[in-house]
Amino acid sequence: MDNQNLATKYLAGLIVRLPEESRNELSYTSGASFEDLARLKKAYPECPQSLFELLSHLNGTYHQTYGNRKFSLLILGSEVDEFQHPHYLKSVDQILFEYKDGRSIRDIYKEYFHLDLVQGPIDPDISIDKWLCFSDCFNNGGTSRLYIDFNPMPGGTKGQIVQYIHDPDIYKVIANSFDEYLQMLIENDYSFLDPDL
Predict the structure, then answer these.
(1) What CATH number does domain 3-187 carry, 2.40.160.40, 3.40.1580.10, 3.40.50.720, 3.40.47.10?
(2) Up-side HSE of residue 147: CA atoms within 13 Å toward CB?
(3) Three-state secondary-structure class, residue 184
(4) Which of 7, 62, 97, 106 supports an S-S bond with 54, CB 3.0-4.6 Å?
């Protein structure tokens, strides 16, 4: 399956699992513009095509304004301590806002840095703004955030998905690519979805 079809398949499977009210809200949304996607491509030249495709259908789901409506919907997910945590998709503007920090994991934790913070082939000395943060969890990223890592340590895969988990803080690889991440959610039957959404 190509990248375009994977993103389309993902959204199609998601939509049929959403309650009617959420499906109605989705009908008012739109995708990122060509200009927005070009800005993202300039900032992150190696951004996966499947993320571009997802954003071309839906430009963010967290306090995102479409026309005169403000829209929030949890459409992605991750697992924290065996519990499913729903996540928002960030808009292009929200992704690019993250592209300013300049600190590495080691910089963030300073004297509190220890190797247990990093699980997998993740470089703790790379500036996190080299990563693409595409998703925050339901409490504004306070528990979990998802990144695309284009600069892994040896043994890693360029484009691997890194999950940040808070308290105790951990950065870990959960998929080798954004495509693999989407496919994982599909195969898990969108288990992050709360029936009360």
Answers:
(1) 3.40.1580.10
(2) 26
(3) helix
(4) 7
